Amino acid sequence: AMKNPVPQAASLLLEKLLLLVHVRPLSAGSGGEPPPAPSYHDTSCFKRGDLLEVPRTLFIHFGIYLGENRVAHLMPDILPALTGDRRQIQQVVTNKRLILGVITKIASIRVDTVEDFAYGGSILVNHMDRLFEDQVLGSEEAARRAEKLVGATAYSLLWNNCEHFVTYCRYGAPVSFQTDKFCETVKMIIRDQRSVLASVLVGLASIVCLGLAPSTTLPTIFIPFFLWMAG
């Protein structure tokens, strides 16, 4: 057990802060639509059950390769709660759909093409195996676990994100290293009262560097104060 557990309210506030580093801001004039999906990925080098990683600027997206150019991955998405039209739902998830899915904690484990999954990024294959050593399950077992979980699921940046999904499928243990690392960084900052000002500056910098609306970002500046007071 942790020495100073973060109260539930503070944990929820931390999830809102994590949203800033998990969602790529839309480029001007994009209209919320995804960019054209390139088709340069050579799927012949992928094997069923492989864990695929797509490094982004601020986070990493994960999926399990199912074979035949199909990837299962967990994506926040509000649309399934608004319509039952499978054609609309199966379209590539836009940033607006993703953000609303995170806020409402609605997600689905869906199957997309490699190109749609990669969203224009490069792909690493089984890069996490080195962290789990002898815990790697069989490739077929990993793929079957992913297929069994396809469908609606609850979403949490802290407890149930795309990394939790793939580590459960391939290693049998749902963990998220990037979330743990970020949380530890935040804890280190808020333990030191002198770092609160630095946290505020980080929030202000995110407005400039990430292009986020001040109305969205400014509330998160005060999160370190709430967490520090609650701790």
TrEMBL record:
Gene3D superfamilies: endopeptidase domain like (from Nostoc punctiforme). Pathway: Cofactor metabolism; retinol metabolism. InterPro entries: LRAT, LRAT_dom. Residues 1-28 form the signal peptide. PROSITE patterns: LRAT. It is found in: Cytoplasm, Perinuclear region; Endoplasmic reticulum membrane; Late endosome; Rough endoplasmic reticulum. GO terms for molecular function: phosphatidylcholine-retinol O-acyltransferase activity. Residues 51-178 form the LRAT domain. It is an enzyme of class 2 (transferase). Keywords: Acyltransferase, Cytoplasm, Endoplasmic reticulum, Endosome, Lipid metabolism, Membrane, Sensory transduction, Signal, Transferase, Transmembrane, Transmembrane helix, Vision. It catalyses: 1,2-dihexadecanoyl-sn-glycero-3-phosphocholine + all-trans-retinol = all-trans-retinyl hexadecanoate + 2-hexadecanoyl-sn-glycero-3-phosphocholine; 1,2-dioctanoyl-sn-glycero-3-phosphocholine + all-trans-retinol--[retinol-binding protein] = 2-octanoyl-sn-glycero-3-phosphocholine + all-trans-retinyl octanoate + apo--[retinol-binding protein]; all-trans-retinol--[retinol-binding protein] + a 1,2-diacyl-sn-glycero-3-phosphocholine = apo--[retinol-binding protein] + an all-trans-retinyl ester + a 2-acyl-sn-glycero-3-phosphocholine; 1,2-didodecanoyl-sn-glycero-3-phosphocholine + all-trans-retinol--[retinol-binding protein] = 2-dodecanoyl-sn-glycero-3-phosphocholine + all-trans-retinyl dodecanoate + apo--[retinol-binding protein]. The keyword Transferase applies. Its EC number is 2.3.1.135. Transfers the acyl group from the sn-1 position of phosphatidylcholine to all-trans retinol, producing all-trans retinyl esters. Retinyl esters are storage forms of vitamin A. LRAT plays a critical role in vision. It provides the all-trans retinyl ester substrates for the isomerohydrolase which processes the esters into 11-cis-retinol in the retinal pigment epithelium; due to a membrane-associated alcohol dehydrogenase, 11 cis-retinol is oxidized and converted into 11-cis-retinaldehyde which is the chromophore for rhodopsin and the cone photopigments. This is Lecithin retinol acyltransferase. It comes from Jacana jacana (Wattled jacana).
